[in-house]
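Work Package 4 report. The design task specified in the project plan requires that, given a folded chain encoded as structure tokens, an amino acid be chosen for each position. We show below one input record used in the internal validation round.
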């Protein structure tokens, strides 16, 4: 198997929010195996989490909570068009791009690499 490293590009805010989510899922959830059924997935998850922890100074700042909330609001606004729009289950998001609606292997840059461009 080819072990060539790949690069994933995120904005600092995306990385910050992802880091917080990974921390909560990995260390504060009792259902890690329920989320990731195959232990093979843990290897890249731990690698991503460790890289984010080493890169982000924000996770050690005293105003972590307000910074995180502000970053989340900006990301929601960028993705959904307004920070105050709901992002809870059952909301009407028919016109909003959702991760589960993006088919793997389709053309277009949905946050993945720029390979082949």
């Amino acid at each position: 198997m080819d072990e060539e490293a790949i690069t994933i590009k995120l904005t600092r805010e995306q990385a910050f929010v992802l880091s917080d989510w990974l921390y909560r899922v990995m260390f504060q959830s009792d259902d890690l195996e329920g989320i990731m059924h195959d232990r093979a997935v843990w290897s890249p998850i731990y690698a991503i989490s460790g890289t984010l922890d080493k890169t982000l100074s924000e996770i050690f700042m005293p105003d972590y909570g307000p910074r995180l909330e502000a970053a989340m609001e900006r990301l929601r606004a960028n993705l959904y068009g307004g920070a105050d729009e709901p992002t809870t289950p059952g909301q009407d998001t028919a016109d909003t791009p959702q991760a589960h609606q993006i088919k793997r292997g389709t053309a277009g840059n949905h946050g993945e690499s720029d390979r082949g461009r």
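The chain has a mean pLDDT of 76. Validation will be extended to a larger panel in the next phase.
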